[in-house]
Write a structure and sequence with these properties.
Blueprint (H helix, E strand, L loop, with lengths): L4 H11 L5 E8 L5 E7 L3 H13 L23
């Protein structure tokens, strides 16, 4: 699907995205419930608040990863 620049600009204006937005993703699942993810650059104040919270709570370095599960059909169990 291709959108014109004008259509995208109207969408951005309608969503009232802040100027520090770097990316938006809109997903519509099979059940029809749309989700929108907005990524944006943090302000100095937000960075300082996160740093303070990080130290106050004694949080270790945050690590994350993805886990993928595969469904497979199990054969009949032999006695």
């Amino acid at each position: 699907m291709t959108f014109s620049i004008g259509a995208l600009q109207r969408l951005i204006a309608a969503l009232q995205l802040p100027s520090n937005t770097t990316e938006i993703t809109i997903n519509i699942s099979a059940d029809g419930i749309p989700e929108m993810t907005v990524r944006q650059l943090l302000t100095d104040e937000q960075i300082n608040s996160l740093a303070e919270w990080y130290v106050t709570e004694g949080i270790d370095r945050i690590q994350y990863g993805d886990t993928t599960y595969t469904l497979w059909e199990r054969g009949e169990v032999q006695p």
